[in-house]
Design brief:
Blueprint lengths: L1 H13 L6 E4 L23 E4 L10 E6 L8 E9 L6 E3 L2 E10 L6 E10 L6 E8 L11 E4 L4 E2 L3 E3 L4 E10 L8 E6 L20 E4 L13
Parallel strand pairs: 2-4
Antiparallel strand pairs: 1-14, 3-13, 4-12, 5-11, 6-9, 6-10, 6-13, 6-14, 7-8, 7-12
Length: 227
């Protein structure tokens, strides 16, 4: 009996349970590839690229700012940062995604709302396998001081099948529909050095860790799974 129980304990330790997959959004960390941003964005000039993983890098909380285009009189749809995952395994990705990020706008006239695009790319970043999510406006307006917002609220994904070595690419941006004869500053807060993650709400102001979470267990190469 003791030998049987020991075998079960070893088996459970060797084979992780299926669960949701949370990606942290560090403030720094150079990715290995540079995928072309989605053509759905009107503007990509403010974008930078950072690596993201399911483990914390413990990078300090830091703000990434962008400015609205003062020459526009209607709306501005732009990407601030592109996060790129480590290689994932071959699998069908579906289910739901949700996220939490602290954001702000320098003026209520910006009328800024969250925008997120999530795609799957080949390992070298040259080929897009498909778009899991493209939500370019919606949700609550940013405050004029940093506040937690859904990025996005729990929303269904479009199914995409990945090949071994592919990567998940998350593009974080803003849809601003204000008055652009003046430039407004849009701020996203990133980093993963806190002991706590941002809660699921739209009220938190503390610099807890932002995240993007898939409802399914994203598989990575070299990890054993039991079906």
């Amino acid at each position: 009996m003791k030998k049987y129980l020991l075998f079960l304990l070893v088996l459970l330790a060797a084979c992780p349970a299926f669960s949701a997959t949370r990606f942290y959004l560090p403030s720094s960390g150079t990715p290995e590839i540079s995928p072309t941003p989605s053509t759905s964005w009107d503007r990509t000039t403010d974008m930078d690229r950072v690596r993201c993983t399911i483990n914390k890098f413990y990078t300090v909380s830091a703000s990434k700012t962008s400015t609205t285009n003062a020459t526009l009189g209607t709306y501005d749809n732009f990407v601030t940062r592109q996060y790129i995952s480590n290689p994932i395994g071959a699998q069908t990705i579906s289910g739901y995604v949700s996220g939490e990020i602290r954001v702000s706008e320098s003026s209520g006239n910006a009328n800024a709302e969250r925008a997120v695009i999530i795609r799957v790319f080949s390992k070298n970043g040259a080929t897009s396998r498909g778009t899991l999510l493209s939500t370019l406006n919606g949700g609550s307006e940013y405050n004029t001081s940093l506040r937690n917002l859904y990025f996005p609220a729990r929303i269904a994904l479009t199914t995409v099948t990945s090949e071994s070595g592919d990567r998940i690419v998350i593009e974080i941006g803003t849809y601003a529909r204000g008055y652009f004869y003046s430039s407004y500053t849009i701020t996203h807060s990133f980093g993963d050095d806190n002991a706590s993650d941002l809660p699921v709400n739209q009220t938190e102001t503390n610099a807890y860790n932002p995240w993007i979470e898939f409802s399914q267990d994203i598989r990575f190469p070299g990890v054993r799974y039991i079906k």
